[in-house]
Amino acid sequence: MTSLRFTARIEINGINPFVPVDAEQAARMREGWRKPMPVCVQVNGAPAEPWRINMMPRGDGGFFLYLHGEVREAAGVGVGDTVEVSVAFDEAYRGGPAHPMPDAFADGLKRDEAAAQAWNALTPSLQKEALRRFDSVKSAEAKARNIEAALAVLGGATGRFMARDWKDGVVV
Q1: What is the pLDDT of residues 12-34, one digit of tens each?
Q2: Residue 14: strand pairing partners
Q3: Domains in the chain, please, with CATH?
Q4: Please, are residues 171 and 130 in contact by the beta-carbon 8 Å criterion?
Q5: pTM for the full model?
């Protein structure tokens, strides 16, 4: 497993705490990598089990290593603190949807060609988010309402789904 150990100051991007990973450091982990990079991270040796996350590309070969609240809490650190970071490429990471597609949603996509085309045009992260949402609802009624809302906006209706405004099958 390719890993790095370095000292950095926790900075903030909007509301998101991060440590910068420069292009040279990123290249030592994976030369030429330009998409989100799956890694396991510890800050000051915490948490005990390294946290799995994707480092996000900055556009200059470097990455933002955003630090989840649980990681910062486990390490007892905050924005402005200088920390020791251990980060390793996550060889076990496998992309693709983490949650199964509900049969009712799959059937709805088969019945509505426009919704199916809009679904296929969504970014993988939005597809994952929708499937995660379907999986997280507790009742069958809530799942049915969410599936109905998704099919409606993907089919071209104006509305809201996943805290986003939709029109003509796309997020506006």
Answers
A1: 999 999 999 999 999 999 999 98
A2: none
A3: 3-89 (2.40.30.100), 103-171 (no CATH)
A4: no
A5: 0.58
